[in-house]
Amino acid sequence: TQPEQIPPPAPPAVPELSDAQRWEQRRARRAALREWRVRGKVGYRLPDDAGSASLDWRQSGDQSELRLAGPLGTGNTQIRNEGALLRVSRDGIARLYPADAAPWLPGGTLLPVPIDSIRYWLKGLPDPNHLIDALMIQDALAREIRQNGWNIRIDDYRDVSGLALPARLTLESLDTDLRLTLILREWTLGP
Q1: Taking the mean position of all CA atoms in its chain, how far away is CA 66?
Q2: 89 contacts: CB under 8 Å, gap ≥ 6
Q3: Which residue from 136, 132, 172, 137 is spatially nearest to 148, judged by alpha carbons?
Q4: Non-local CB neighbours of 113 within 8 Å, separated by 6+ positions
């Protein structure tokens, strides 16, 4: 007779990660994204005005460049951050504006839109340069962020190369009646 074979011991059980640990893993992966592009649509609503435009946002390190086309951008508008200033080009004319206000509305109306914070919110992250007033995590994903005078609600995520990235966000200014809705249809990761 042959000797009885003893099966090898089972590998040690890997402990389940908590929701907080999974959030931290996902946060770190999204924070590491330095080069990306997203296309979609942005809508705005004010008490006496509303509109929408197509959105093309490119992020390269700390440099943001957005292009708006359609009624919201009155044709085509390009916004590029340059440190504390935004360079806004429309109808062949470029002007500099404070970084927390960009003329997105027809007629050049300034909207208090924090471009530097939005680049983080688009990735489903709080802006690390501002205090977080509130952060609601569900299934290891940010669902609501309150910071920098804004309430950000992330209604939907989509898988992009194994990474959960926002597909629909609503940004509401806590200081004005401005509400932005962003529908993000096409993400491209890398340069």
Answers
A1: 13
A2: 77, 78, 79, 80
A3: 132
A4: 100, 101, 102, 104, 178, 180
How confident is the model over 60-71, as a mean pLDDT?
86
Strands 141-147 and 179-189: unpaired
3-state secondary structure of 103: strand
Cβ-proximal residues to 92 (8 Å cutoff; 6+ apart), any chain: none
Other C-beta atoms lying within 10 Å of the C-beta of residue 64 = 19
Convert the pLDDT of each residue in 79-118 to its tens digit.
Answer: 888 777 888 887 788 888 777 665 555 455 566 788 889 9
Q: Give long-range contacts, CB 8 A cutoff, 24+ apart: 135-142.
A: 137/19, 137/20, 137/23, 139/19, 140/19, 140/22, 140/23, 140/25, 140/26, 141/23, 141/26, 142/23
Do residues 87 and 96 touch, judged by C-beta distance below 8 A? Answer: yes
Element (H, E) at 25: helix 19-31
Element holding 24 (H helix, E strand): helix 19-31
Tokens encoding 34: 């330095």
Distance of CA 14 to the CA centre of its chain: 33
Return the structure tokens found at 132. 């977080």
pTM of the model: 0.84
- The C-alpha atoms of residue 143 and residue 111 are separated, in whole angstroms, by 24
Residue whose token pair is 């929408």: 52
Q: Give CA–CA dist 155/191, Å, rounded.
A: 27
Q: Which amino acid is at 97?
A: Y
